[in-house]
Request: fold
Amino acid sequence: MRRSLGLGAAALALAAVAWSGDANAQACANPCTDAQVTVNLVYFGSTAANPSINQAMKSLYGDPVNTCTSVIKVYRCKRDLDGNPGNGAETCVRAFVGDNLGSCEGVNALDNKLSNFNVCDPNAAGAPSSGSGGLKAANLLSDEIGNPLYANFAGSDVSYGNCEPVVSNAQIGRPNIFDDTETNVFVNGFGFIVNRGIEPLVNARAKTVPASGCPYAAGDCVKLDGTMSMTPQKGFAIWGANNSCDWRFFSKDVDPSAFRNIGTVMRNRLSGTRRYFNIQVLENSAPGQGDMFVSGSGAMVTAVNGNQWCGTNAAACGENQSTGVLGGGAVSAACTGTNANTISLGVLGGDRFTSFDPGTPADPHDDWAIRNNAADNYDVLPYEGTHYNKANIRCGRYQYWTVEREYYDNDANIAVNGRRGYFFPAGSIKEKAILELFSQLTIDASTDPTLVPLTDMFFSRARDGSAPFPSKAYATFCNEP
Reply:
């Protein structure tokens, strides 16, 4: 049974303000110890959902009991899950956000009950801020009955079936757990990012530079307009055929005086961002061998920040489509500029964006996406002439988005790897704990600057990559522009 969680009472806050995220300290309302743990939740999967997973856990369980990285954290708190409010919070939940690289890695880990990834040891020296010294392989920690931990729930930017070609043996071994537990939690958008070196090369008519009010510095929220828009046709030529490699051909508003290479960077084949890029832009054709491939959104940002591409990273140029092994590619013959004349272009999930309001808080339709970290060095391109913002996604104008899925292990059998005793039986306290977390993900999406709660969408898709179609009557909201 596929679940679509969306709480109608959650108001959609469309004012473009930076999401507070972990900034607000909050203690666990009902502390507990490891000896009292009743439920263990171990997340491994989509990196796009990492900030949301951490935020939902913090909303439910309070501040982490230990933080090992900006992503890898562990929470512990008692929750009232037995349906009897009279006896207070009775269930001690311990929740881990593991070290992960992509959606399909999470699907594979859940399918095969894997534990070959790091989590944050709640009892490591230096807790609650152990840093990297607190990292520990999941199987070196135990669940509430003494068995090693493994990935018992995962998130994915695409439906699990889109991961099947790249998981172990190109086959999902336990499709029933995915069919039975798939839970839609929110809409997550994607965008194209370009190194900010493009800014001085773009004609003034193709960019908006606000005089002040940016969260970083005056004028530091550039909006690339008009012909600086990405389209599937351009994307296929740039990343797929590798026969377009000149920023001057991307847009007539780029300075024509010199050839400047488009430095193509892609996520690897296990990434949900990549699987959806294959569907939306490449139309399931193979990517070109003149692209640089990276394994996570952090690596994508690093590459675009530094204008990396095949010309600077030969070892990451090209990808074996069967094994995922990198290398063997080469700079496309269409790229005739120098490394110094290269400006990188990549694809990124909306979790790395925030929304900028140009001084019209009553109109959410004119906002645009900017980087959410001042230290980064990229701008966000419009897609098919439309800017990434929640209003445009809701109203069907910005169409590069998917529904974020969550899955969990409800299989009582020892299917693989001898993992005994840990699953979420239907109707159990354990299942109530995981479903409470999924509900919180939907609630928090209303205040996130880039995610959209499912109930706020006026459009939906029958499957990943299909055309959006109206899912309910248009409101005055979508007619405002």
